[in-house]
Design a protein that fits this description.
The complex is a heterodimer of chains A (about 300) and B (about 170). With about 300 residues, chain A is mostly helical. Chain A has eleven helices and no strands. Chain A has one domain. The chains are: A mainly alpha (about 300), B mainly alpha (about 170).
């Protein structure tokens, strides 16, 4: 079953690529990501002059591994999950932390100024988004009384968390976009840095980085689905269908939303998240605590 | 049990190896990432010992902390990439002596301590998380709160110092 789930993750990443292509070009082309992938693999994979070879080579597979690991604990349907950990919600955080490590490595590795600035930018971005990932998940775990991701989905049977904790939902959604460095939070790969951390990679290495980014978007969309949209819960149709539909819808909104917003500045992002985001996340935790203690009892 | 002991030994050796690598490179970034790998290997040791919550927490916290440390090491060192082969060590004899004495003291402590009986039964991971929560909110609360408040005070103090300097 695990192999099938891994293949499903790849298929999901492909669909995310189709959606991304659709959003960017305005045309729905089902074969476009496949052709782009083949073209990338056919190109020479250049190594820049004087790279930190170890970090340069480690970054692409590490990013892919982190994205797959964060996805591994998120359930598709009851009992259908790659790894059902008792600390699943925490594990998602742990895996996502290595996204930043991989991006910083990709920034430092090539010995190129723009890539390096992109890498450090993402470290600053982490300081902005990390609390807004952890704190909303805390509130979600509070409601479920568990860190097990399947229990979190089951806890939403009466009411999805997106309705019960709208503030947490909004913060987590935005923070998830920042983790996947999607527009308007695409600071590490921004055009003003000529693609930043991705700029010095070509050929197969770039193909792995792009695939990793797609799996990351898929993983974060699944996380939003599992933590806030009731995961597999839905009427009539099979549970897995609901998870897939909701995940792809979230991915589409993530990919589409940012395109209509100007790119944020690093300092603005930090200011908003620390002066506004974290107080709101605290309010969310208080809100959930109060509703748990007073309303649901 | 044998697989578990093997995994524990493997992660332990990896932690030691990367711990040494921290000091064997001139690049600050490599040094920071080596330390991160050491800490991640310690997380692996927790997982091998079936302490799931602690293992995952270690993996999560250290990735962020070590990367932030890397940027400070970059900012404050004169040769952060190590390309200049700049010598950044000093007081070598004293360091060597302190290292040997500290290492032997740690080893003696590990060997001489009465560790108590080996746990024959491990509570399930969910139970461990629950027990840890109760521990943190009970007996150990004062320690953690003291540490937390101290760190907060230090952060506020550091920020105040920086802000007042900027106005000068």
């Amino acid at each position: 079953m695990n192999l099938w789930l891994l293949l499903l993750i790849l298929a999901g990443a492909y669909l995310v690529a189709v959606i991304e292509n659709w959003v960017v070009t305005g045309r729905l082309r089902l074969l476009a990501p496949l052709l782009a992938g083949i073209a990338l693999l056919g190109r020479e994979s250049l190594v820049p002059r004087l790279p930190d070879r170890l970090l340069f080579e480690t970054a692409p597979p590490l990013l892919l591994a982190a994205a797959i690991l964060s996805m591994a604990v998120l359930p598709l349907a009851p009992g259908t999950v790659l790894v059902d950990l008792a600390t699943g919600a925490l594990f998602v955080n742990a895996a996502l932390a290595y996204v930043m490590v991989a991006v910083v490595m990709a920034g430092w590795g090539p010995d190129a100024a723009y890539a390096m600035i992109g890498g450090w930018r993402f470290l600053g971005q982490l300081v902005a988004y990390s609390m807004l990932i952890v704190m909303p998940i805390t509130a979600v775990a509070m409601r479920a009384q568990s860190l097990v991701t399947t229990a979190i989905v089951s806890s939403q049977a009466p009411l999805p968390n997106a309705v019960a904790q709208p503030l947490g939902f909004l913060l987590f959604f935005l923070a998830a976009m920042a983790v996947a460095f999607l527009p308007p939070f695409d600071l590490p790969t921004a055009s003003d840095l000529a693609d930043g951390v991705f700029g010095e990679y070509t050929g197969a290495r770039l193909a792995i980085l792009r695939l990793a980014r797609l799996v990351l978007v898929l993983s974060l969309a699944t996380a939003v689905t599992v933590f806030y949209l009731g995961g597999w819960l839905g009427p009539l149709l099979p549970p897995a269908f609901w998870t897939i539909v909701k995940t792809l819808a979230v991915a589409a909104v993530m990919l589409l939303g940012g395109r209509y917003l100007p790119r944020t500045r690093s300092d603005h992002l930090l200011e908003w998240s620390w002066k506004l985001g974290i107080p709101l996340a605290l309010v969310n935790i208080f809100w959930v605590g109060i509703t748990l203690l007073v309303v649901q009892r | 049990m044998t697989v578990q002991a093997g995994a524990l030994a493997l992660f332990g050796l990896a932690a030691l190896w990367f711990g040494m690598a921290v000091f064997r490179t001139h690049s600050m970034v490599r040094s920071a990432f080596s330390l991160l790998t050491t800490m991640a290997a310690l997380g692996g040791m927790f997982l091998a010992m079936q302490a799931e919550f602690l293992g995952v927490l270690q993996l999560m916290m250290m990735a962020t902390e070590m990367a932030i440390m890397a940027i400070f090491m970059m900012m404050y060192m004169m040769d952060p990439g190590g390309l200049g082969q700049m010598e950044m060590t000093h007081q070598k004899r004293l360091s060597l002596l302190a290292g040997i004495v500290g290492g032997l003291a740690g080893l003696a402590l590990a060997v001489a301590s009465a560790w108590g009986p080996v746990a024959s039964r491990v509570p399930n991971p969910a139970r461990q998380t629950h027990d840890l929560g109760i521990e943190l909110l009970g007996r150990s609360m004062l320690i953690f709160e003291t540490a937390g408040v101290s760190i907060l005070v230090a952060m506020i103090a550091a920020t105040t110092v920086v802000i007042s300097r900027r106005h000068e």
